[in-house]
Specification:
235 residues; alpha+beta; 8 helices
């Protein structure tokens, strides 16, 4: 019996095995088609499906960040700065008097203080003296602006405090103080103001008047050297 050389057997097996694999793949493909099962998609299609999956439904893929035009603009309300103060903040137009109800610096004064000023004004006018309001009620913004200017002018907060109080302590912000001019008017009030309860409070500010209701009977209280000596100005 003639035997096939080893080299011939090896060649035959090499030819038959690939052919068997091809036949098996063809058979499996026919079975899949017959059963209606989906064929495996290429890897590129699989990648595109995973990218479109909805987060939270079995996919860890995050949606892309929105483009710049789609993003909400930053909130600019906190970046806005308040404009310059004006009459609504207590800036007084030139020539304003204690009778000007249309001027907020006058109209927003404490009602009793304003009434006392209006009782005194006619008597002063009989002597040829007119009360001019240089400053009255002020908004906190206006007061803070004045304080910043005073610090810049006098070089320190300590020195500025002798002339301008903070917004939380100033009697101007509460409507309890008024600055009167000209000098003839302040001189008249220094002499006659106590009868109306109108008193100077600080020696360094002869124009600054406040209401002291017991002044008609007891006279005006002793004045402070400046606002830093006033207990109301202390935190």
């Amino acid at each position: 019996m003639t035997r096939t050389p080893p080299s011939s057997r090896t060649s035959t097996h090499r030819i038959r095995r690939p052919l068997l694999v091809v036949v098996l793949v063809a058979v499996l493909a026919a079975i899949v088609v017959a059963l209606g099962l989906p064929l495996l998609k290429p890897s590129s299609d699989s990648d595109s499906d995973s990218s479109s999956a909805t987060p939270g439904q079995g996919s860890s893929v995050r949606p892309p960040a929105p483009s710049l035009p789609d993003r909400a603009p930053p909130d600019s309300s906190q970046q806005e700065r308040r404009g310059p103060v004006d009459e609504a903040d207590g800036v007084v137009p030139d020539g304003s008097t204690v009778l000007d109800d249309d001027v907020p610096a006058v109209a927003n004064l404490d009602a009793d203080l304003l009434a006392a000023l209006r009782r005194a004004a006619p008597e002063a006018a009989d002597g040829g003296v007119a009360f001019t309001v240089n400053s009255g009620w002020r908004s906190p913004e206006y007061q803070n602006q004045l304080l910043r200017k005073a610090v810049a002018q006098y070089g320190s907060e300590a020195e500025a405090a002798r002339w301008v109080a903070t917004a939380t302590t100033s009697p101007h912000v509460s409507g309890d103080a008024v600055d009167i001019g000209p000098e003839e008017a302040t001189a008249w009030l220094a002499e006659h103001g106590a009868a109306y309860g109108l008193c100077r409070i600080y020696r360094n500010e002869p124009w600054h008047f406040e209401l002291r209701t017991d002044a008609p009977d007891r006279g005006c209280p002793r004045r402070y050297a400046d606002p830093t000596q006033d207990p109301r100005m202390r935190p």
